[in-house]
């Protein structure tokens, strides 16, 4: 038979175990889904998913303001559809995220100031079209702008 003291100790250990598991689950959730790495990668994945769907209007919205200055929205939509889909003779493409690395300082152009919070993400797009199959490798940069992750490309010479 168990004494009251033995039952109390067993219940205490069970309670401590449950609280520990809950704390670990909350910590794991925060570390995984609220981390900068996860959010930056998710933004890049959202961008390329929209591009896959031919939704260049919404993908353009994910650009950093410096990218939007480079590509007015209408021109971007027209160029992207014309060059990548029409010239390559494809309806869509697949993509894969190959590598995600945090970068301390990065500039989009030689003239710009460096971004401080940046993730460099390697993307491989696979096109299967009238000119055969080919892969396009590109480094994409996720940068923070006004608290949100945005897309930038490298234009340094």
Question: How does this structure look, described?
Answer:
With 157 residues, the protein is α+β, with helices and mostly antiparallel strands. It has a single domain, classed as Nuclear Transport Factor 2, Chain: A (Roll), CATH 3.10.450.100. Helices cover 47% and strands 26% of the residues. It has five helices and four strands. It has a four-stranded antiparallel β-sheet with strand order 1-2-3-4. The radius of gyration is 23 Å and the shape is elongated.
Q: Short description, anyone?
A:
By secondary structure, the protein is an alpha+beta fold. It has helices at 4-33, 36-52, 56-61, 65-70, 73-87, and strands spanning 94-103, 118-129, 132-145, 148-152.
Number of strands: 4
Structural class: alpha+beta
CA radius of gyration is: 23 Å
How many structural domains are formed by the residues?
A: 1
Strand and helix map with partners:
Blueprint: H1 4-33, H2 36-52, H3 56-61, H4 65-70, H5 73-87, E1 94-103, E2 118-129, E3 132-145, E4 148-152
Antiparallel strand pairs: 1-2, 2-3, 3-4
List keywords for this structure.
157 residues, alpha+beta, Nuclear Transport Factor 2, Chain: A, 5 helices
């Amino acid at each position: 038979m168990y004494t009251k003291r033995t039952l109390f100790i067993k219940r205490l250990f069970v309670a401590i175990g449950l609280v520990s598991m809950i704390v670990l689950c909350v910590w794991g959730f925060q570390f995984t889904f609220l981390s900068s790495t996860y959010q930056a990668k998710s933004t890049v994945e959202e961008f390329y998913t929209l591009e896959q769907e031919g939704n260049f209007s919404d993908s353009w919205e994910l650009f950093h303001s410096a990218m939007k200055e480079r590509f007015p929205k209408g021109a971007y939509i027209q160029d992207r559809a014309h060059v990548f889909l029409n010239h390559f003779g494809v309806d869509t493409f697949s993509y894969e995220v190959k590598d995600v690395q945090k970068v301390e300082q990065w500039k989009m152009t030689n003239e710009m100031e460096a971004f401080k919070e940046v993730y460099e993400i390697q993307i491989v797009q696979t096109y299967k079209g009238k000119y055969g199959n080919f892969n396009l490798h590109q480094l994409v940069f996720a940068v923070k702008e006004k608290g949100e992750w945005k897309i930038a490309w490298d234009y340094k010479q």
